[in-house]
Amino acid sequence: MNPQSQPKPIRTALIGTGNIARVHAEGMQKLADRGSIVAAVDVDPERLAEFCDKWDIPNRYTSMTDLLAAEELDLVHLCTPPGFHRDQAVEALRSNVNVLCEKPPALTLVEIDEITAAEKVSDASFATVFQHRFGSGAQNLQRLIRQSALGAPMTAICNTLWYRPDEYFDLPWRGQWLVEGGGPTMGHGIHQFDLLLSIFGGWTDVTAVAARQARPTNTEDFSAAIVRFENGAIATIINSFLSPKETSYLRFDFDHATVELEHLYGYTDDSWSLTAAPGHDDLVRLWKEGLTGQPSGHASQFAAVFDAIEAGEPLPATSSASRSTMELIAAIYASAFTGKPVASGEITPESPFYSAMDGSAAPWSDVKASH
To answer: Which of 42, 234, 287, 320 has the fewest CB atoms within 10 Å, counting from its CB?
Structure first.
């Protein structure tokens, strides 16, 4: 390639320098030949200075507004608590700067719709960090589905069985509807069932339960759902803070094969397996041939985001994909708290679950959580 035709290095900035920002910085180091973090923002000057010194970030701001006014940026990474995402995303989009937002992308459907509205009148685009979509295992499964090699989708299991002790909720924004948006359904299982949605596509309806079994939260600490998809498949989803043996487990059953993924916070090719139905042993070979060794993780998604920026295309995972995943979360809560199935598209602006994930209807709403 002619050096003059090579893309310019992508200039990014981190908003927030807490723990997840470290993961973003590590991921960006793996793509140092394509872009760099040129600035960071944090309201705590000491934390900001310590972080920027560690990661060799030259420009430092205590205000996102000041950052956007001073820097020419291709992308901002929102690494702040969920309650800040809507306002920060809208501000960046109004400055025509692309946004890659940590999950959950917003607290409610009204907030994600406000982000989407800002995106529509911007030259930039919005995406959520759903890094499990970008490992070679997930990419390989999608390839075989496109080729119709696996036959019709039938069933799926999607479990996020994690453990969080009481002290995890000592941070004031954890376990609160108004500042975190929900419990394991909103903030933890979201990664697994977003991957499920990326594989099975659009969902039609959900029936769910949710409970606050043990943790000192105002949100649920457990949920379970049955989801039907447009392609006819049916999946079960469990999200838990209560499981000492932690695992993330997805199983996809097709006519011709079962594909399984078991990991905790990120997968490699070895985390996946394919079991062929009788008469379809060739699928084992096809599966292995499609694996490239790319793990899930932030760096894998960053590479795809950089590809999109260079091509002038919407960032993956798109605002539309983010909205679909958020709608499923809202529907799980709505079904759990009303005791009724909820259809896709049913939660309109008139629904209490459009502007609050709990719809002010959690059965323990009037009972204060305590340690």
So the answer is: 320
